[in-house]
Write a structure and sequence with these properties.
Blueprint (H helix, E strand, L loop, with lengths): L1 H25 L17 H12 L2 E6 L4 E4 L4 E6 L2 E4 L3 E3 L4 E3 L10 E4 L4 E5 L3 E6 L2 E4 L1
Antiparallel strand pairs: 1-9, 2-8, 2-10, 3-7, 3-9, 4-8, 5-6, 5-7
């Protein structure tokens, strides 16, 4: 009798796990495309690859405290790590849909576009930025 109870409990547990798995599968948990609106979590390598496909040359730049990255009109900047402020003229924050004035802190992972030549960012600490377009780094 004891063995029969254990066997029935084991079979019941396996059936329950199968039902839960199939319910999740049919509910769409396994069918979402990575990076889509249904599954928005992405990796840095995916982001860099997508940016390279859409805007061309994307470079990861390391800036030290006090260095300025200045771009030409249309240059894009995304801050990945560190503290950075806007330098030169205003930057357009495409992510927030706003204008970022000189010496305003830039947000991590926001997409900024240089609206006028000789605009960009200044590192307040060691930082990493993604840049697409023409730029130069100066002290």
């Amino acid at each position: 009798m004891e063995k029969r109870k254990k066997l029935l409990c084991g079979i019941g547990g396996v059936l329950l796990m199968c039902v839960v798995f199939l319910t999740g599968h049919y509910a769409g948990a396994a069918s979402k495309t990575p990076g889509s609106t249904g599954d928005p979590l992405i990796t840095l390598s995916y982001l860099e690859g997508r940016l390279a496909q859409t805007v061309g040359n994307v470079e990861k730049i390391q800036l030290e405290k006090g260095q300025k990255l200045m771009g030409k009109q249309g240059t894009g900047i995304i801050v990945l790590r560190g503290s950075v402020t806007a330098a030169g003229n205003d930057l357009v924050d495409l992510t927030a849909g706003s204008l970022t004035e000189k010496e305003t802190s830039l947000f991590l992972y926001h997409n900024y576009i240089v609206a006028e030549d000789n605009s960009g960012c200044e590192a307040l600490s060691s930082c990493t930025v993604l840049v697409f377009g023409q730029y130069n780094v100066r002290k």
